[in-house]
Prior knowledge:
Blueprint: H1 3-11, H2 13-32, E1 35-36, E2 42-43, H3 47-58, H4 72-101, H5 103-119, E3 125-129, H6 133-144, E4 148-153, H7 156-164, E5 173-175, H8 181-186, E6 194-199, H9 204-217, E7 222-226, H10 230-238, E8 243-245, H11 247-260, H12 262-272, E9 290-294, H13 298-309, E10 313-318, H14 321-324, E11 331-333, H15 339-344, E12 352-355, H16 360-373, E13 378-382, H17 389-395, E14 399-401, H18 403-416, H19 418-427, H20 432-446, E15 452-457, H21 464-471, H22 478-481, E16 483-484, E17 487-491, E18 494-501, E19 504-507, E20 520-525, H23 527-538, H24 540-546, H25 556-570
Parallel strand pairs: 3-4, 3-6, 4-5, 6-7, 7-8, 9-10, 9-12, 10-11, 12-13, 13-14
Antiparallel strand pairs: 1-2, 15-20, 16-17, 18-19, 18-20
Amino acid sequence: MDTIVFLVFRRMRAPLLSLILVYAVAMAGLALIPAQDAAGEPATMSLFHAFYFVSYMSTTIGFGELPNTFTDAQRLWVSGCVFATVAVWIYAIGTLIALLQDATFQRAIRERRFRARVRGLCTPFYLVCGYGQTGSALVRGLTDRHLHAVVVDIDPERINLLQLENQREYVPAFCADARSPAHLEAAGLRHPLCQGVVALTNVNETNLKIAIAAKLMHPEVTVICRADSHEVEANMASFGTDHIYDPFDTFALYMATAIQAPCLTLLFDWLSGFGGERLKEPLFPPTRGRWVICGYGRFGKAMYKHLKEQGMEVQVIEALPHKTGIPEEGVVQGRGTEAVTLEQAGIRRAVGLVAGTDHDADNLSIVMTALMLNRGLFVIARENQHHNHQLFDRVGAHAIMHPSLIVANRIGIRLVNPLLSDFATLARLEDEPWACELVSRVLGLVGECAPHVWEIVLEPGRAFAVCDAIARGEPPTLEILLRDPQARDEHLPVIPLLLARDGARWLLPGPETELEAGDRLLCCGREWASRRMGWTLQNLHALDYVCGREGWREGPVWQLLAPLLRRARDH
């Protein structure tokens, strides 16, 4: 039985039975008490007339006595019935109002409304479990790119916050425990348009249960999880979780790449940014020397591992080394907020500092104290709470590690531009001069704003004209696709970054590359260029024009205007 109907019948059972009983007694009394007609002859009231009279009498409307004037006995009986029926109606209405205000009933209504909205979705969406700092950043990133999401979170305050935020797309949200398979199903896990499940709660075990439930209930769906420990990460990978993101390892690898190849890191920053933003400045971490790490937790251990792999000298400061462990070089016991502790760690001859504790106040204090002792430090600060972002911007850190934003950014890239992750993997195999040359090309193409990055899929629904040409045996080259459909002698400000075909990947495909049906192409450039390229992909006349044929001038209007345009051009 429907939950709402069940709650109504359960809570209203006693009031309804009371109403039926009082109505039945009142009607029976009116039918049994002797009455008289207008001529003074004995008469009886029918059950129909009794029901009609009791119906308006109990609501105190008062239409008069019928079908005949009442006797004193009837009026006495009616006087008692008035009080009884009014009392039972007050009881019923009061119970109904209490039911409408009941938290369980309101939750059932919200759940039914949520289920209806999810069933009514007609565009692909992602199911996001957890609307903390990571989930909110991911949802905003998806909606800013006009993608859809459904949110489930156990905290009602977060759901209320989501409903107050001004998202570009409507986001259905439900306050529930995402570990429950029933709640996941209600949120659209089995919906045919569900593109993936993203588990972003701050509890590793919860993310693990969500991943298991998603894979068992919908094996084909993509599952992406956040994991803050290697044990949980290995467990998730064991049953086929598609993508697992550890913010600490991700940032540590990012910094290691910045040490080895700053141009490559800068390229990734530009391509993963939001189109139209100002380009980020490059990072140049020191490539040799002593680093001091304050905090040997999950982040500190990840930074320690990658810095040691780069051949750095590392000294760790930890307040509770008996809990976190001790590295092979030993540890300076303390929080790092005191100048004495930093002096013991050799901060004056260090080149880099990592303030990586779990407390933002300690990290800010560490940075400020360390910079007073050594102004030449390259500083990495961990920001645990996003509302402290302004403080970290002012403290003088060169790089800020925010776990939630890192995971949201990486997952957003995976969902919005899957080929960009493949490009990053292949680009890491290239040398630094290759990355520097590509950075120069991108900079010359877009100026001071971040490039717009998009994917092209050569299938009839997205590239009708190109697929039609391929089917006719006239496959266009990539150079044709890069021509401007408004002026074919000019090229669009676009750089093809990656070509994916039948499982193979090619970086920076050449202009002579012939396109095939099913190809996927990753491009970057100006946003208006992507719209112009869309014309060529979809419009047969635009494709004919850039191929050298007069595709734009085949219509009757162009045939009338062509002589005038030729004379104007000749003059």
